[in-house]
Amino acid sequence: MMIYKLRIIAVGIFSIIIYCISCPVLAKDFPSQKLLPLDLSTQAATAAIKQCNDDGYKVSVAIVDQAGLLKVQLKADGAGPHTLDSSFRKAYTANSLRSSTQKYAVMAANNPELQSLTRMNENILLLGGGFPIKIGDEIMGGIGVGGAPGAKLDEACARAALKVLKADEMK
User: Fold this and answer.
1) Has residue 20 got a pLDDT over 70?
2) What's the total number of domains in the chain?
3) pTM of the shown model
């Protein structure tokens, strides 16, 4: 009876050892996801606000993660309340469509059949000032700037954030 109990214990220990050894092997089969760190995202958003402020514009900046969820949003002192919504929607759009919002704004303006993109969902905004955050081969999220008088000005501030993130600049 004692030998039987020892065998059961030995089989149990052996099973635990095999399980522990195989877990790392199984874990490598799951894809890993890179994340935008909060502190770096905040630094990037601050850089965009500073760039626009230095240029004389009061804006809001939003950064979304890969899922399109808000990671960081900052509103400069004096920026209009509408800039919060536009910056988020530009960041969401750039992340979702995987390209600059200006690119899609021009495409939709020049191609009537693409007008439906503007109504895809309530978060899509085809207006310049948003870029995907692309690091290496992966889209990590999106950035949107809203409030400067023109897409090129919003884009200049968003580019300052992309530099902080060391992200690839997309046209």
Assistant:
1) no
2) 2
3) 0.82
